[in-house]
Design brief:
The protein is 36% helix and 14% strand. The protein has 13 helices and ten strands.
């Protein structure tokens, strides 16, 4: 079996060579190229390239809490189902995360947001995960704009090409194994009229030693892929997706993006349209597999066919389902942890399958007689 890792080039390591050649370009040139690609998507925003998506949230919050107008505000509204790095970025900024409810399709519930907004609200963060962006997000942003002057932030880590509502003040992007494959790196986009008027942020430049650490991290990842590819855990204990943000390169900091991050960000941004086409093909193959085996049910968000992760609801014992994907070589994204606790989750039956555009899922998710060699599948089919 060929493992399906989040890392894109396990099939064809030679594909890395032309991409890595860009590492020898001047960093300023790479910065300009990546910035221009992002500005093609988000025309009215200034782009600041930073160490990671999680750091971009932290950087923005630290930028706005210094404004005199908002000195008495200390609450940030965030979704109740999201990666805990968002909570950590808020807390490390000495602010209080206030969670609003999301529906079964991961969309904000406007009525709950309305009740949570107060005179202490500094910002409202929306996160269109798993292809969930639709008019509900637009309506929620419009509600916030009418109700409060708090900053409206869209965390587009999983949907880089998604243009948010006109009310948006800031956008968060991530280049680390979500919409595009990469080695950390992210971007903070601030609405141009505000950025140039009073919201100014300049990340700290990386030292030679720090640049080298990021490069070393890339080679560690590559070694792990080639020698010991990642797969679903066989442990009897369930640990949900959770980050401590305490280990390099996952720490929250005010650092600029690394050169190796720029190299892969540029490649991913150039390939966005091709990724969309390949993901649609993969989605069709995976959907057919799900309909026949009936061990998971796809959560049909509006843009699920082109999302970097396909959310599914587990039917039956989650451990058996994880074992099935493990034996297919598919790395599963576990449910997000609840309240910084890796052993609890608000949606324990929701996992996500990475839709990796560098693989052909018509070959991986084949429903053929050989598949039934797995005894735990036989019992359920």
């Amino acid at each position: 079996m060929i493992p399906v890792s989040l890392y894109a080039f396990y099939f064809h390591p030679l594909k890395l060579l032309p991409i890595l050649l860009r590492y020898f370009l001047p960093k300023n040139l790479l910065l300009r190229k990546v910035t221009l690609k992002i500005e093609e998507i988000y025309e009215n925003f200034d782009v600041i390239l930073v160490a990671s998506g999680r750091s971009a949230i932290y950087d923005f919050l630290n930028c706005i809490i210094k404004l005199k107008k908002f000195k008495n505000r200390n609450e940030v509204l965030i979704p109740d189902y999201i990666c805990n790095v968002v909570d950590r970025a808020v807390i490390k900024s000495n602010l209080i995360p206030v969670k609003y409810k999301t529906d079964e399709y991961f969309r904000p519930m406007k009525e709950d947001i309305y009740t949570k907004i107060s005179e202490k609200t500094l910002a409202v963060i929306f996160a269109p995960i798993f292809g969930s962006y639709d008019d509900t997000f637009v309506q929620a942003a419009e509600l916030c704009a009418r109700t409060t002057d708090a900053f409206i932030v869209f965390d587009n880590a999983q949907c880089i090409s998604c243009k948010p509502p006109k009310e948006t003040d800031a956008i968060i992007l991530s280049f680390n194994n979500k919409d595009i494959w990469g080695v950390m790196g992210g971007a903070l986009l601030i609405k141009r009229e505000k950025s140039r008027a009073y919201l100014k942020f300049n990340p700290e430049k990386l030292s030679f030693h720090e640049e080298f650490r990021y490069l070393l991290e890339f080679f560690k990842i590559l070694y792990k892929i080639l020698i010991s590819p990642l797969s679903a855990s066989r442990s009897n204990r369930l640990y949900f997706e959770h980050s401590t943000c305490s280990r390099f390169p996952y720490m929250l900091n005010k650092k600029a993006i690394s050169k190796i991050s720029l190299v892969f960000a540029l490649h991913g941004l150039n390939e966005l349209q091709n990724y969309k086409i390949k993901r649609e093909k993969n989605y069709k193959a995976f959907k057919e597999w799900c309909e026949i085996l009936k061990i998971v049910k796809i959560i049909e968000t509006k843009n699920v066919s082109t999302a970097p992760f396909i959310p599914v609801r587990v039917i039956g014992d989650i451990r058996n389902v994880l074992l099935t994907f493990n034996e297919l070589g598919v790395q599963v994204k576990m449910p997000y942890a609840l309240d910084d606790d890796p052993e609890s989750s608000a949606r324990r039956d929701v996992i996500a399958i990475p839709n990796n555009p560098n693989f052909d899922y018509t070959k991986i998710f084949r429903v053929i007689p050989e598949l039934y060699q797995y005894s735990h599948i036989k019992k359920r089919v």
